[in-house]
């Protein structure tokens, strides 16, 4: 069941991030064409490209967590005994989830304040558009972090059953 | 003083204890906010706003573009063409393929801003070719790892963009162009060491090439060789900003690999774009988390504290540069280069400006130093990448890399004490 949900989330994130990347590339490339070939300045391309960029950062983190790909130093903790390693890794995953939760709560609180600020070149869009990816990504990130936490104990349980 | 200890040692401790880099930065920042405001008044909105707003930067867009261009150009036939051309050009010098390895890294550095991409992509072809010609595996792996550190020095460069963003006010195009001379210097010092080792171990070399052979290999590598020309030329002529130059190189790399060489199918392209987005997010999450850390660092007046401590010890700018180098080497052993740049730049920049050091010179020195950190365990990313592609243990890669620390440190010292090596070209070409 967990795996099914994880695959579903991953599939959704893959498509979303692909679309964001493609849009961002096309927007900046078209900005170059507009400015240097057609001699026509189109400022909204830059601003919308930046919005897609912020989406890529936070949605991408969910993908990083799904693959356990965050940059970290595990040389020292790998020297711990399996029991202590499991406990220590659990503490790390819980604290990392806590930080993501802080970001999530902070983004919800910020929505009201930033709704008053419009994007300079696209007035019908406001700054909430920058916080939406956090609201989408944070639950996914926490899901993947907690899945890794569960896997730590499931793996141990399976080993004990096998014995 | 307690805050200084929390900020610096607390962060390094969290890194070493296995926390993901952005989380270590975010958790330390949160701890400082708890100390300042208490749990009840914890400003979650400050955390979110600092982190989200710092991602809203056009300059940073260059990072996924540089990564994507490098990833597209890192396909089998293009890397093989470049390596073949380099071997024909310099394979006759004592050390043969080892020089081709260095030259290929220099050329590839003009397409990709990442040392690990160079080590993993070019490394596979280079190490196999060197082993087939009779070079020791350890030596082949060592020179591959060492030369890959040139990647982020010669433009395009992700660490240079990261430095430019954290040291606000420094022109990114100046920083990027500043890397050309030091990057070539690194190549020359590594080549000298290769000649010494090769003559001692009697490694093979090719015969001097015929002009026709050289011309044919040049023709084969011509289109990939245009990438750095477009990128650097575009920035130098003032036609493109670094981000625009990066996207132009993406479009060119796409045209070359998908249309001309037909190396990449649309399905592959989908996978590559997702992989690049993931890898970019990995670096960018560290960058945006560091914005909060940098804000708190300045608010706690840590840079001022560091200035007072350092100026209390000495006012000689060269001794200060030496001390900073020692600090960076230690930090580089334990911390990812981009994270180290983001954390240390806001703390060190005021000191650097106070003693009259050119920020472009400082940026170059810092990036070069931290690139050497990619070759030092336990967090030597290039060592791990090469160990994987060479199928040998980390110990053997370290052993193979050991002789090349000397030329790299010589390059670092030259860049540290001769500022013109990094400032001359950007001052000449960019006003």
Overall description:
Chain A has 163 residues and is an all-alpha fold. Chain A has helices at residues 2-37, 44-66, 82-114, 128-162. Chain A is elongated, with a radius of gyration of 21 Å. Chain A starts with a helix and ends with a helix. The relative contact order of chain B is 0.15. In chain B, helix 2 runs parallel beside helix 14. Chain B is mostly helical. Chain B is globular and about 75 Å long. The interface between A and B is large, with 55 and 59 residues.
Contiguous helical run count of chain A: 4
Shape of chain A: elongated
H and E order of chain B: HHHHHHHHHHHHHHHHHHHHHH
Radius of gyration of chain A: 21 Å
Largest sheet of chain B: none
Residue runs with pLDDT of under 50 for 5 or more positions of chain B: none
Share of helical residues of chain A: over 70%
- Structural class label of chain B: mainly alpha
Average of per-residue pLDDT values of chain B:
89
What percent strand of chain B? under 5%
The count of β-strands of chain B is 0
What level of helicity do the residues of chain B show?
Answer: over 70%
Distance between the termini of chain B: 42 Å
Name the beta content range of chain A: under 5%
Mean pLDDT across the residues of chain A is: 90
Structural class of chain A: mainly alpha
Oligomer: heterodimer
Q: Provide a count of the helices of chain B.
A: 22
């Amino acid at each position: 069941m967990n795996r099914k949900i994880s695959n579903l989330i991953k599939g959704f994130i893959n498509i979303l991030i692909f679309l964001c990347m493609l849009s961002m590339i096309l927007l900046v490339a078209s900005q170059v064409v507009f400015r240097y070939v057609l001699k026509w300045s189109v400022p909204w391309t830059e601003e919308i490209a930046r919005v897609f960029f912020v989406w890529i950062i936070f949605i991408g983190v969910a993908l990083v967590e799904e693959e356990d790909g965050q940059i970290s130093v595990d040389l020292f903790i790998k020297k711990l005994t399996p029991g202590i390693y499991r406990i220590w890794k659990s503490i790390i995953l819980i604290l990392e989830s806590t930080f993501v939760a802080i970001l999530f709560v902070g983004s919800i609180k910020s929505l009201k304040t930033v709704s008053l600020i419009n994007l300079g070149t696209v007035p019908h869009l406001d700054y909430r558009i920058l916080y939406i990816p956090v609201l989408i990504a944070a639950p996914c990130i926490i899901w993947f972090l907690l899945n890794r936490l569960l896997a730590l104990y499931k793996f141990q349980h399976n080993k004990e059953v096998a014995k | 003083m307690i805050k200084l200890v929390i900020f610096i040692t607390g962060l390094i401790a969290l890194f070493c204890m296995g926390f993901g880099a952005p989380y270590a930065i975010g958790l330390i920042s949160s701890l400082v906010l708890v100390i300042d405001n208490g749990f009840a008044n914890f400003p979650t909105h400050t955390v979110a706003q600092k982190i989200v707003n710092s991602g809203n930067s056009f300059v940073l867009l260059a990072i996924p573009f540089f990564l994507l261009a490098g990833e597209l150009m890192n396909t089998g036939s293009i890397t093989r063409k470049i390596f073949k051309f380099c071997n024909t050009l310099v394979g006759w010098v004592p050390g043969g393929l080892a020089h081709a390895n260095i030259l290929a890294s220099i050329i590839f550095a003009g397409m990709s801003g990442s040392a690990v991409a160079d080590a993993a992509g070019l490394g596979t072809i280079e190490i196999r070719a060197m082993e087939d010609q009779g070079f020791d595996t350890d030596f082949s792996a060592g020179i591959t790892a060492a030369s890959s550190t040139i990647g982020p020095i010669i433009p395009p460069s992700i660490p240079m963009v990261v430095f430019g963003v954290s040291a606000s006010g420094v022109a990114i195009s100046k920083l990027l162009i500043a890397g050309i001379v030091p990057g070539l210097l690194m190549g020359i010092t590594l080549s000298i060491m290769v000649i010494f080792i090769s003559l001692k171990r009697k490694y093979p070399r090719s015969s001097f090439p015929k002009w026709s052979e050289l011309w044919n290999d040049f023709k084969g590598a011509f289109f990939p060789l245009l990438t750095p020309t477009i990128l650097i030329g575009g920035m130098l002529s003032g036609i493109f900003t670094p981000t625009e130059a990066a996207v132009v190189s993406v479009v060119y790399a796409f045209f070359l690999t998908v249309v001309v060489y037909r190396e990449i199918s649309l399905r592959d392209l989908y996978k590559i774009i997702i992989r690049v987005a993931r890898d970019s997010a990995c670096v960018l999450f560290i960058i945006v988390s560091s914005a909060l850390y940098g804000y708190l660092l300045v608010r706690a007046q840590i840079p001022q504290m560091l200035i007072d401590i350092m100026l209390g010890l000495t006012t000689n700018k060269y001794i200060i540069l030496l001390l900073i180098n020692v600090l960076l080497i230690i930090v580089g052993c334990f911390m990812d280069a981009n994270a180290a740049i983001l954390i240390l730049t806001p703390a060190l920049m005021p000191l650097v400006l106070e003693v009259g050091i050119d920020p472009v010179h400082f940026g170059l020195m810092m990036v070069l130093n931290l690139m050497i950190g990619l070759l030092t365990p336990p967090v030597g990313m290039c060592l791990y990448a090469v160990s994987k592609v060479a199928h040998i243990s980390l110990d053997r890669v370290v052993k193979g890399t050991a002789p090349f620390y000397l030329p790299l440190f010589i390059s670092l010292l030259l860049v540290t004490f001769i500022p013109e090596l990094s400032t001359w070209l950007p001052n000449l070409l960019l006003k």
